[in-house]
Amino acid sequence: MAETPLPISLEFFPSKTAEGAEKIRVVRQALYGLKPEFCSVTYGAGGSTQDGTFGAVAEIMAEGKEAAPHFSCVGATKANVREQLSLLQSRGVKRIVALRGDMPSPYGSEGEFRHACDLVEFIRDETGDHFYLEVAAYPETHPRARSPDHDLHAFAMKVKSGANSAITQYFYNTDAYFQFVDDAKRLGVTVPIIPGIMPITNSSQLLRFSDMCGAEIPRWIKLRLLAYRDDIASIRAFGLDVVTGLCEKLRAGGVPSLHFYSMNQSAPTLEICRRLGI
């Protein structure tokens, strides 16, 4: 157990229903006991959940916590982004997770921003140092990157364009994270690179999502999950052991903090943090 608690942050996604939104409020209150540094709220493809995202951010801020909306630029114009930035400033938002984002459909327009570094640079030009900017990092390489080296240089460019720190895609191999951090340092990246932590609660959902986003599930973990089949209790117990061990290795390696992908649930993150002494 660490003498000094490791800082954490949390991610939520906006609900599409009033009932779901109320459930998330209960989850947030439970997780606030962990004293998160901030809470981020995801943004749908092409900005499809913008109202829900910005609304959730406003609620979190009203609850006394710092909140950061995900802010994607794919398909956007500079005029539209400028308007949204002005809105966020007027609401007192001080932090943004700046992303390229995914196209809402194969027929959508790329807009005026080709890469996330273009968005970061534009935000800095428009708003100076008003926003603390987080960007994404992919220790196991972005699934659509030309090569690991190209992806690493793209990440470094986002940082050099004005990012303050980065949050990684989730992973279960600490070697990939530490290697990525070392490689980024060799390119002059000195900002904190915060590991993204995904609790394991549903094996089929995790395996499916990992295939889409390029996160590798180590063979030994995958085989154990498949062997449990529909035994939810065993999957969750195993998942808690795996993710707690992952976090312990990361903490021992000196990570600046942990960012938990809560999946709008409180129990898994609370139990992992309890085991870590947070």
Describe the structure.
- By secondary structure, this protein is α/β, with parallel strands linked by helices.
- The chain has a single domain, classed as Alpha-Beta Barrel (TIM Barrel).
- The chain is 47% helix and 13% strand.
- It has a nine-stranded parallel sheet.
- Helix 6 links the parallel strand 6 and strand 7.
- The model has no long low-confidence stretch (mean pLDDT 93).
Main sheet: which strands, in order across?
7-6-5-4-3-2-1-9-8
Calculate the mean pLDDT score and round it.
Answer: 93
Extended strand count: 9
Secondary-structure element series: EHEHEHEHEHEHEEHHHEH
> Based on helices, strands and strand pairing, what is the structural class?
alpha/beta
Q: Quickly name the level 1 CATH class.
A: Alpha Beta
The total count of helices amounts to: 10
Helix content: 40-55%
Architecture, CATH level 2?
Alpha-Beta Barrel
The Rg value, from CA coordinates, equals: 18 Å
Instruction: Report how far apart the termini are.
Output: 9 Å
Major β-sheet profile: 9 strands, parallel
Low-confidence runs of at least 5 consecutive residues: none
Global outline? globular
Number of domains: 1
Strand content: 5-15%
Tell me the quaternary state: single chain
Concise account of the structure shown:
By secondary structure, the chain is an alpha/beta fold. It has helices spanning 18-31, 50-62, 78-90, 116-127, 148-160, 174-186, 203-213, 219-228, 232-252, 267-276, and strands at 8-12, 39-41, 67-72, 95-99, 132-137, 165-168, 193-194, 196-197, 258-261. The chain has ten helices and nine strands.
